[in-house]
Design brief:
- There is one protein chain.
- This protein is mainly alpha-helical and about 210 residues long.
- About 60% of the residues lie in helices and about 0% in strands.
- It contains twelve helices and no strands.
- Helix 1 crosses helix 11.
- The N and C termini lie close together (about 10 Å).
- It binds iron/sulfur cluster.
- Iron/sulfur cluster binds next to helix 10.
């Protein structure tokens, strides 16, 4: 079976057993962007608690978050963990956008993929996974997001070598799948679900997993 066929089979198996995941769980491109920073090294439940704090405090807007003292922003987002670092990273991104386009995230996101990716990666604290999450889920551009689960699942199924880095895994998907935002969106969301439910770091539950036998 070719790599393209195997990737297609993996997708179909996940979709058949788990169904569409309806990602990203954010109400607007701005919320997706904030969530992409807050979700670094934590789960989505904690991100939701942090975003709820910001909403309850009436500061969940571009201008309000950019104007908050960093220490206060850090307090609001404490449930997301690494809150001092994430408050700085979030404001780095907001200040960068302000410099480029003013306070309008949607205008900022309305740029060609390569240029926008380059800009996002130039912001301190925004790495490839965060940048690509913003590109795919907020800007709706066709780029594959790679995370720890993706790497682990592909490695366990012999599709990559241990040393295959972010760009190498991304290339594998993008060279072998149709270049479609909706497909990349659903595929990544399903991999995260499989990683969460079955393909844990220790004791993977292969017996119940849709990818058993591939
Ligand atoms: S849990 Fe097992 S079958 Fe499922 S993705 Fe991981 S290694 Fe594959």
């Amino acid at each position: 079976m070719s790599t393209a066929e195997t990737l297609e089979l993996i997708y179909q198996r996940m979709l058949a057993q788990l169904g569409p995941q309806h990602w990203w769980p954010g109400e607007s491109p701005f919320e997706v962007m904030v969530g992409a920073i807050l979700t670094q090294n934590t789960n989505w439940k904690n991100v939701e608690r942090a975003i709820d704090n910001l909403k309850r405090a009436g500061v969940f807007s571009f201008s309000a978050l950019a104007a908050l003292p960093t220490a206060l922003l850090a307090e609001y987002i404490r449930p997301a963990g690494y809150y001092n670092i994430k408050a700085g990273r979030l404001q780095n991104l907001l200040f960068f956008i302000q410099e480029q386009q003013g306070d309008d995230v949607e205008i900022f996101l309305d740029q060609p993929l390569d240029r926008l990716r380059q800009q996002l990666l130039s912001v301190k604290g925004v790495g490839p996974e965060t940048a690509d999450s913003i590109l795919l889920y907020a800007a709706k551009l066709p780029i594959f997001v790679v995370d720890t689960y993706t790497h682990r699942i592909l490695l366990r199924h012999g599709l990559i070598e241990e040393e295959c880095d972010y760009a190498c895994v991304q290339e594998l998907f993008m060279d072998n799948l149709a270049c479609e935002t909706a497909l990349y969106n659903e595929y990544h969301a399903l991999l995260v679900r499989v990683g969460n439910l079955y393909c844990k770091k220790k004791n993977p539950d292969c017996g119940a997993c849709p990818l058993q036998g591939i």
